[in-house]
Amino acid sequence: MAEVAGPIERIRPAERNLRWWLVHRNRGYYALGYAALLILSVWTLFPVYWQLATSVRSDVDLFSSTVTLIPRILTFEHYEKILGPSYPFLQQFRNSAVVALATTVISTLLGAMAGYALTRLRFAGRTVLARLLIYAYLAPGTILFIPIFVMMSRLGLRDNLIGLTLAYLTFTVPFATWMLMGYFRTLPIELEEAALIDGANRWQILWQIMVPLSGPALVVAAVFAFTLSWNEFLYALVLLQKQPVMTAPVGLAAYVVGDQYYWGQMMAAATIMSLPPLVVYLFGQRWVIAGWTSGAVKD
Amino acid sequence: MALLRTVERTSARAGARPTRLGRDFWLGYALTLPACLVVFGLVAYPLGYAFWLSLQDIKVGGQGQFVGLANYARLLFDRDSRIYGLFWNSVKVTVLYTGGALAGKFVIGMVSALILNAQIRARHFWRTLLFVPWAIPAVVSAFTWRWMYNDVNGVINTLLTNLGLVDRPILFLADPKLALWSVLIAAIWQGAPFWTMTFLAGLQAIPRELYEAAAIDGATPLQQYVRITLPLLTPVITVTVMLSAIWTSNAIQYVYVITNGGPANATQTFPLLAYQEGMQAYDLGIAATIPLVFFPVFAVLIYFLTRRMLRQEG
Lengths: 299, 314
Known about the structure:
The complex is a heterodimer. By secondary structure, chain A is mostly helical. Chain A is 78% helix and 0% strand. The two termini of chain A are 53 Å apart. Helix content of chain B is 75%, strand content 1%. Chain B contains 15 helices and two strands. Chain B has a two-stranded antiparallel ribbon with strand order 1-2. The two termini of chain B are 26 Å apart. Chains A and B meet through helix 2, helix 5, helix 6, helix 7 and helix 8 of A and helix 2, helix 4, helix 5, helix 6 and helix 7 of B.
């Protein structure tokens, strides 16, 4: 035994040295990495901080000749003002919520139906339709906004939240379908075969087997539909021109009165309207990241 | 072999295709009908309608008159028309804007992804932090940047003055030479997290053993990056560049909110020009034509992206 243990013991310090070297050889790079991380964090957080800091500063403080990084006096007067009855902000926030929630529910539902059919059913035109969905998802809104504006005007759906929701479906439905197709394909087909043998029909299989099993993918589709439609600007800008029907992003752009900017109030409104997508992102991060990596970009 | 394959093919055809429309055509069409309505009614039809509008002289609220390719001719060749100069200016601005944004997002996205992929402490926390700009509405961050750039009370000018770096405030948004750069920085701030995310996912798919083997062979981290990381990341980079090129060149929020195309049209990208012609000058024909001139570029990008996405789906 001693003869065997000898050479191994002799190797161990060398191996330990190699390990140490492998771990510590890049220390310079790690120091550089942490320094870069610090810069990136400041770059990322400073605008967010400045938005918040502006929203709790008094106007006197905001327009004084010396701007301090930390507000001298904390005040919530801007929040009180924009949430008060003389401002359309609450109404516009509600409009945003209605449109974003309607878009989310409709696109997730339609996405599940089409996604199931395109992955598991056999019918003519299936592959063509799958391809068209990607084309539709990638089609730029700048090409579509003028014709959609004319169409909605003719249909009487301008200045109307239904018209805006329809416009949002142009990108959320293709995305949800594509995303769910990828997920349905990974579910074992044996489950469906067993259910078919037990006498279930396709419709029951979709709602009682596929959908319950697809929780995570449905959440991804929903989170994306919500965030994209909550933040959308171009269609809302074009389709909503009356203040009471505006969504929060367009309402914010409309606060600008001539050359006079009420930065405190604008940043207060901006902060409140950033909260829903931020909360969805912070709680649904895992799914957001899954969507980024599996839905939109498949690599 | 050939016979066997023929037999298989025949039996497969017999098994899978009891009718010409396919085994499940009834339910298949029923389930895809709503999505089809969206694709045809809200994307394909408007696209065709955009072409139809581009062939007309049509104002908001007015009747259209068929003018053939006159709108295209005015944009592209008619040196005497007002829109000719504006259009070619917007081409130049869009190219600069898109190119600059892609370069900036690439650098920040790559550096962030490399750091987040390394064995750093509290990786999850840093990842959450660096992705925050993605979740913030673009209009909000555009206004925040506009406020930070302000020449009188803006924080950037105040800091620069206090540090003694400048004597007079820099006119970030009023100087035609600076305005596009200022808008670009805001757009990069918002857009970089998407790149970080896709790059990070790509990096995580590269097997660690490759790096270990290279390290034992004495490759420096830079060599490892050039010889292993970059080649294996190329497909991800290609897709991200194409997607981001479509989205960036079509984004209107930053130029609309931060500069509204000014000063002296220095930041007037083509979506903003189309918006202003259509919604403010009420010329729907020209407004429909402007983005359509760029359509071939997008069609090529979309074609390649779709091919790649379908191939990966298998």
